[in-house]
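Note to self: user wants both folds in one dump. Writing first protein now.
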Amino acid sequence: MALLLAKRIASVGRALAAACRRACLRILPLLGRRRLLLLLLLLLLLLLLLLLLLLLLLGLLLRLEGLRLLLLPRARGDDACDRRVPG
């Protein structure tokens, strides 16, 4: 499940990068140098926020997976035989 989520996030990231690249190629000739630097700074901050969000989601996913593993009954020694359904 985590691998599927990672692949999905990577594909969304690639699509977002391509869209940003196309938009920048259209906008760059219209902007001056000062506005361009401000835009690049804003994009950098946006990317940092996105990275933080992804890290938080990954942490939440790992925490939920850990809780699921903790809540599952574990078979230890002879207890494993007692948990089988007779029949």
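First done. Writing the second protein, which came from a different request thread.
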Amino acid sequence: MIELVNRSTRTMQKLIIDDGMKRVILKPGRLKIYRTVKLKQLIFGVLSLVAIVFTLVNAVSLHILPSVKKYLLPNPQIGYFSSIPIVSFETSMARLTVVDIATRDLNNRTTISRRLMNADREEITISVVALIQPNDMTSEKLDTSKLKVDTSKLSAAVRTLVSPPFASASLSLNTQSTSNVLIIGLGGSQMNNFLHHFFPHMNITVIELEQTMHDIALKYFGLSEDSNQRVIVMDGLEYLKEAADRGEKFDAVYIDACPTAFPSSEETLCPIHGFLDDVTIANLLAVLRGTGRV
């Protein structure tokens, strides 16, 4: 039971608060303090309840959700992102590193990719490929350097490079296609591996300037060579000139000739400047079939 007390010059009412077994008479100033205390007690109680529920949910999740050990990779102290250097090597232009990148999203899905990087320009990825993950993956026994490359996948950047000859019908989408394709620039061999995976009869010639890049692609990026796919180590500009002189013809020419060093002063990195001069452009036109596309 509550009766309000209103003290003034004309009227006076009693304030009685029935608090359980007690009957307490409060003045107006004390009423305000009483309500403030009660409000603080209520807030404290609600926060305590939330803390208890949160603690219980986390305790239960440790038993219901998959073990963290199942998803963490060789660096267990970085729960959602691990960078694992595999090997470093020298080209004629720069020192490069092969790095495996493992990420885990909030749904505990793990993806692992392999990247070719230049430590001087870490914001630039020279090449990236997806790796095939084992079904039983634990940090204790997983060595990412031994994982195979998934040649059926392309990075978003390379998709835009691969698709134009197919869009213009220079290359057929028939998986039995025997089209003649020239790729200048091997890198991590992502593009030629993808084409060879889905079009095993396509005749693919890759030109690579650096022998070291060829060796690294064979060992770490899933490059395989056979009668329908080969890598020739030589200058791409020289190869174009010789191919034009021989009268070779290609259904598509992909130019992915980029430097392995990336000076920030350069406005255009890919392709290298030699592929933009008139002589090289003339050689490109000479090696294309009538329906061919660069």
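Dump finished. Worth passing along: Residues 81-146 form one domain.
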